[in-house]
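TA notes, week 10

Several of you asked for a full example with nothing omitted. So below is the full record: structure tokens for the whole chain, then the designed sequence directly under it. When grading your own attempts, check the secondary structure regions first.
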């Protein structure tokens, strides 16, 4: 079992939501955090909270779609704390809409999802994750670090209407751990760096607050625990995935029983 005490976590999207919860959970367990977000205010708030917990934290404002920002983030972790033991690329967005919208009366398509709307989600949720993980993995290997790369998939990876962009990115997150684990295994790194994904259902963060609330209410009626998953519950799962070194290459679901069929 790995110990979090003194271990260093790099978290993108650390200025709020699930990233913030993981950061605070990690610090609560004795770890140090390097946080990255595109919104400076969120990052400053989380940094202040962590310092009040007497935790050790470094922050960097940046954009995960930019190669140089990810390189600077991974370097910051090594320069400040000398290691990277956990990588959680949490930066992610939704930009929901139908691929094509046929008019209910005429049956003819009146609107299409613009390329920019589709691409913006891919840029952050896939390319951003790839860049964060690539840069952190390079530093982990070159600095002889052990630990875990934990990607964030979603129950949306199974396919959700209105989310052709988001669902596609989250399906990618569920396959990437298998590729990464296989590549590390080939280079004898498999016993040092593991990779998994967590796939949350609907979690109580700004992301779900930004959804159509009527639709969300309807979805929650089909969740056996009858509520949103708490970001702290996702953080606790990631903590366990880090500790337990037998967990590797898989997707770990956390959704309160969502999609297990209707009541009655
Ligand atoms: N909330 C949910 O229900 C839910 C469910 C399943 C998966 N997820 C995934 O969990 C991750 C975190 O989601 P969340 O609910 O905490 O969302 P959130 O919106 O609360 O937080 C996301 C954070 O990412 C930051 N961010 C956005 N674009 C960025 C960029 N280009 N560069 C750097 N930072 C950027 C935002 O500023 C924000 O602080 C996402 O990948 C999301 O898809 C969320």
């Amino acid at each position: 079992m790995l110990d979090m005490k003194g271990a260093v976590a790099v978290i993108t999207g650390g200025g709020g939501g699930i990233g913030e919860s993981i950061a605070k959970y990690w610090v609560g367990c004795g770890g140090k955090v390097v946080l990255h977000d595109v919104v400076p205010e969120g990052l400053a708030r989380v940094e202040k909270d962590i310092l009040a917990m007497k935790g050790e934290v470094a922050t960097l404002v940046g954009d995960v779609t930019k190669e140089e920002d990810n390189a600077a983030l991974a370097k910051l972790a090594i320069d400040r704390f000398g290691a990277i033991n956990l990588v959680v690329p949490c930066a992610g967005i939704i930009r929901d809409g139908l691929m094509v919208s046929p008019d209910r009366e005429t049956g003819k398509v009146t609107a299409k999802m613009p390329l920019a709307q589709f691409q913006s989600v891919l840029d952050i949720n896939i390319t951003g994750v790839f860049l964060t993980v690539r840069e952190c993995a390079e530093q982990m290997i070159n600095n002889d670090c052990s630990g875990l790369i934990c990607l964030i998939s979603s129950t949306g990876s199974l396919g959700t209407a209105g989310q052709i962009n988001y669902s596609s990115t989250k399906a990618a997150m569920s396959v990437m751990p298998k590729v990464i684990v296989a590549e590390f295994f080939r280079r004898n790194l498999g016993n040092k760096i593991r990779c998994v994904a967590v796939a949350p259902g609907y979690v109580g963060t700004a992301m779900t607050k930004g959804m159509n609330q009527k639709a969300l209410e309807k979805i929650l009626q089909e969740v056996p625990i009858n509520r949103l998953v708490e970001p702290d519950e996702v953080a606790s799962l990631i903590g366990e995935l880090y500790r337990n070194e037998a967990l590797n290459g898989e997707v770990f679901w956390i959704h309160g029983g969502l999609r297990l069929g209707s009541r009655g």
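The chain is about 45% helix and 15% strand. Use that as a sanity check on your answer.
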